[in-house]
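Sharing a chain and its predicted structure for anyone who wants a worked example. Both blocks are below, sequence first, tokens second.
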Amino acid sequence: MVDETKDKSLICITINFYDIERKDNTMMNESMFGSTMWAGHWLWMLVVAILVVVPVYRICQRAGYSGWLGLLILVPMVNLVLLYFIAFSDWPASKKGAQDE
């Protein structure tokens, strides 16, 4: 009789763990692609990218470099290299201006 009680309690514990595992799996499998929060995230990232890339694009053009160089500002670590490159290099536009005088 003691063995039956242990078996029943073991079955109940197993069933409870199964229910918890099933609930966790359904929560983990929910897709974020359909929610408005996910769409808002990408919209926010697009706005920030535009707010950062457009000024860097114009700075590169005024310095005499290709404006498309400004897209490198979106690449981590490369953006720091670009920043120091623009800050400390001789700009082609300033060389051209010195030759015109």
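Comments welcome. Residues 36-63 form the longest helix (28 residues).
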